[in-house]
Amino acid sequence: MVITGKVALVAGGTSGLGLAVAATLLAAGARVVVTGRSAERGAKALARLGDGASFVAGDISRPADVAAAVARARHDGGPHIAVCCAGATAAGRVVGRAGPLPLTEFERIVRVNLVGTFDLVRSTAAAMAGDGDGQEDPSADEERGVIVCTSSIAAYDGQQGQAAYAASKAGIAGMTLPLARDLARHRVRVVTVAPGLFDTPMLAGLPARARAALAAAAPHPGRLGRPEEFAALVRHIVENPMINGEVVRIDGAARLGSGH
Predict the structure, then answer these.
(1) Would you give the DSSP letter of residue 28?
(2) Which of 55, 165, 198, 230 is catalytic?
(3) Domain residue spans in the chain?
(4) Could you give the count of Cα atoms lying within 13 Å of 93 in the half-sphere of its Cβ?
(5) 165 flagged as catalytic
């Protein structure tokens, strides 16, 4: 898809990977609607992004908030591109010192990461399909939309304490191909990116020794990923029509150990 002139919705676009994606798509000529839970972070994101960006406050685990973000993108003439970088993380062993992991905590992570991602996919896909009849047209090469989801290498290499997080991210990876097959008749692509360890605000507060240990997990390059590298992959996915129904790891060949 040619990005110039398109409208992109970036969930979780006020910081980290999502903010880098928003900046990259703006630079490529798109108008961008970013969402996030914090109005303060939203204002800071808009100050950084500048013209062509707008913000809608909302939580991806709330269907009404997702609908409001999609409505804003529709108002702007889209969405043609949707990128889900919103999510939550948590650590907790199945059986810890306080007993079994609370079921509510497992449900919370799955609701935010997996259910929230699916809600964004279904809502943006419906908007992209528009009034089309959904019938296959072999001669029509123009696509109506591209949706990029975010999984994690934890979907494959989950560590101790990551049962809920790994399950939610594995769910995203597992639904990618069925989503792409479902939406092919509407000429909408679905691709998932599974990032490794990236230098985002989530890791910024860690001690230097801990950050160095995480960086060493990647054989080459032996460092944390940069958000702009994630964003560059998202841009390539949007622009390359043959990437569809795939989960792409971006991790410097890192494989997570069992943890401690």
Answers:
(1) T
(2) 165
(3) 7-130+144-249
(4) 9
(5) yes
